[in-house]
Amino acid sequence: MIAAINPEPDERGSILFVGQDKAGHWLVQAQHGGLEGRFVSRDAALAFASAERRSIPGATVQLAAHPMISVFSFAPVRADERAV
User: Fold this and answer.
1) Number of domains in the chain
2) What radius of gyration do the chain's Cα atoms show?
3) Which residue, among 37, 23, 9, has the nearest Cα to 67 in the 3D structure?
4) Tell me, what's the pLDDT at 3?
5) Which residue of 17, 35, 45, 56 pairs with 26 in a disulfide if CB–CB is 3.0 to 4.6 A?
6) How many CA atoms lie within 13 A of 41 on its CB side?
7) Distance CA 25, CA 35 (A)
8) Residue 28: closest CA among 7, 9, 43
């Protein structure tokens, strides 16, 4: 997937949330979507969020106050599924 680059940064900045889902997976999600990652530890999630923050003007990193809901399923791939 190729994402369009917006030449005008969001003046409000963006928030990268770091937290766990109800199953205990560590996630990083952008406030307005478009970014999600799953990590093995809190430290790994924070390191990723900090690195991404540097490339997003005005972005901040915050710990999520509530369990996060992943956009992507972490369920194993079924036998009749395949990657596109």
Assistant:
1) 1
2) 14
3) 23
4) 47
5) 45
6) 3
7) 16
8) 43
- Which candidate, 44, 50, 11, 47, places its Cα nearest to that of 25? 44
Q: Which residues pair with 20 in a beta bridge?
A: 26
Q: Cβ distance 83 to 38 under 8 Å?
A: no
Tokens of 30: 């952008």
Q: Specify if 42 maps to a domain.
A: yes
Helix (H) / strand (E) element for 39: namely strand 36-39
pLDDT digits 0-9 by tens, 69-80: 998 887 888 888
- Does 11 score more than 70 pLDDT? no
Q: Give the range of the structural domain holding residue 26, as residue numbers without chain letter.
A: 15-63
- Asked if the structure places residue 37 within a domain, the reply is yes
* Residue 4 maps to a domain: no
The answer to whether residue 6 is domain-embedded is: no
* Pairing, β 60-63 against β 15-20: parallel
pTM for the predicted model, two decimal places: 0.74
